[in-house]
Amino acid sequence: MRISQNNQRRREKRLFFLVASFVTLLIPCHAVLVPWLDNDPFEEAPILMREGTWSKGMFPLHPSKVTEKNKSLKRKGTVPQYVVDNSPLLHLYSEERYWPSDVNDFVKRFQLRDHSGEKTIHKRFHDLSDLREYYSVEFENGTRGQVSSEGTYMTSLDDFDKDPDWLLGEQPEYGTGHIKKAPAVLFVVDKGNGWVDAFWFYFYPFNWGPYIMGSGPWGNHVGDWEHSLVRFYKGEPQYLWMSAHGGGTAYKFEAIEKIKRLRRIDGKLTNEVIKKPLIFSARGTHAHYASVGQHAHDVPFFFMPLSDFTDRGPLWDPSLNFYAYTITVGEKVTPCGAEETKMGLEWLSFKGSWGDKQLKPSDPRQKWCPFQWKYIDGPRGPLFKNMQRISLCQRFKWWNFWKGCPARRSIKRGEGLDAEKNDLVGDNCGILLYNIRPKWLRSMLRFLTWRGSVCFIMDYFTG
Predict the structure, then answer these.
(1) Tens digits of per-residue pLDDT, 348-384?
(2) Which GO terms describe its cellular component (predicted)?
């Protein structure tokens, strides 16, 4: 009798875990079909207002709608101390080849050409002051006029395929994380109602693309702008978003790994110990992740042949050297220091690409695979990275058709040999499978979800 009851309990337990597993799969799929079930409070603001959860004065605003009455920054042209205290640190990859660089030095290696890549619009840049929104050119009929920088390309004076010295960048100083010749670029954006966004931009002179099944690299380009966003509410950090291949991942700030550092006020060390968030920069592509290991490269689920790699390589502290600007009422950009004032603001309005145009198929340096060219267009500058956004995400990838941007509540672990995990903390949604019995059922569900798209959906919505 007792044996029969035990068997019954085992069957009930197995049935419970089976039902729970399928319910867990079903809920995120339902959330995909019903976008407002996604966990992005900033995109859901109108709904939350109607429900009475939020009032009109509680959510962030587009900078153009911020007024003197609801502004969050009391002084334009000044970086709040809490922004510096919570600025991200970056672990660059230990075998990185293309390190951060100074944009002011970088531009000296280029001339400006039109969209065809043939006609020269500006012969040579001397510094950032040569970057502007419009250029004076001579037309074929002999007259002169203004042309927009949109669609133009900064074109290398050297053969970038031969890795000239300026393309390699500068490594961080051991111990401090300081890079003297590679200042980051900070934009502190007033979103009103107590909200402030701190955008940290990191510039690399070259993006070294991924390898696909041992072939590559593919998707290389001269110039590489990456950035992170720390969103504050009344001076307290709430969220951190990090860029990766035009997309990115958002986290609750408390979920991100932190490192203890001595606090700096006006650049001077104090005895106070604070904790700063940590980001991992991938080898070559400089895409950002929250953990060490192998990560899916620009696809919604883990795909071994196309990956990014992160580890605990040299530590970079961008807060030790940066150019700073505030964006306040009326979307007005204000420099925060003498160096920024000297550089002017015109360079931020440059609409062209910070790097060469995609090489022609006939160019001997160019190669092609079924998914990508070896050399592609350079990127655009910081003001074209959607810093006005209300959502945490800059934009949405092609597969994110529901336009969701939830803030994760736990770190998404990397895979592979470099990953720092074990069977009880890693593998993200796969951890749910360990409680399923019997083993054949667990194996079946593991086969259906392990590192696949269904597992991605579960992980995305459960955080």
Answers:
(1) 999 999 999 999 999 999 999 887 899 999 999 999 9
(2) fungal-type vacuole membrane
* pLDDT tens by residue, 315-324: 999 999 999 9
Residue from 89, 87, 130 nearest 106 by CA: 130
Would you state the pLDDT for residue 11?
55
Element of type H or E holding 276: strand 268-281
Closest CA to 106 of 127, 129, 132, 92: 127
Among candidate residues 267, 324, 266, 268, the one with its CA nearest the CA of residue 77: 324
Q: How distant is the alpha carbon of residue 358 from its chain centre? A: 23
> What is the residue extent of each domain of the chain?
2-55+429-462, 63-408
Residue 90 DSSP one-character state: E
Amino acid letter for position 92: L
Answer whether the bond into residue 379 is a cis peptide, omega within 30°: no
User: Rounded to whole angstroms, how far apart are CA atoms 396 and 404?
Assistant: 8
**Backbone φ and ψ of 22, nearest 5°:** -70, -30
Give the DSSP H/E element, type plus range, for residue 25.
Answer: helix 2-33
Instruction: Look up residue 388 and give its two tokens.
Output: 């006005």
Rounded average pLDDT over 390-400: 81
The packing angle between helices 453-462 and 2-33, to 10°, is 80
In angstroms, the CA 3 to CA 145 distance is: 93
- pLDDT tens digits, 87-116: 999 999 999 999 999 999 999 999 999 998
What type of residue is 4? Answer: S
The mean pLDDT value of the chain amounts to 84
Residues whose CB is less than 8 angstroms from the CB of residue 20 and which lie 6 or more positions away in sequence, other chains included: none
Question: What's the whole-number mean pLDDT along residues 154-178?
Answer: 96
- Asked whether the beta carbons of 282 and 293 are under 8 A apart, the reply is no
pTM for this model (two decimals): 0.83
Q: Which of 248, 328, 253, 259 is nearest to 281 (CA)?
A: 248
The rounded percent of the chain whose pLDDT value lies above 90 is: 60
* Candidate from 24-33, 298-307, 316-325, 344-353 with smallest mean pLDDT: 24-33
Distance (Å, whole) CA 168 – CA 109: 13
**Burial classification of residue 289, based on how many CB atoms lie within 10 Å of its CB (0-12 exposed, 13-18 middle, 19 or more buried):** buried
Q: Rounded CA gap, 284 and 415, in Å?
A: 18
The 10 Å CB-count burial string (b at 16+, else e) for 365-384 is: eebeeeebbbbbbbbbbbbe
Q: Which residues pair with 146 in a beta bridge?
A: 136
Other C-beta atoms closer than 10 Å to the C-beta of 266 total 6
Find the helix or strand (DSSP H, E) in which 175 lies.
Answer: none
The answer to whether the bond into 438 is cis (omega within 30° of 0) is: yes
For residue range 39-60, list pLDDT tens digits in order.
566 765 655 555 556 666 688 9
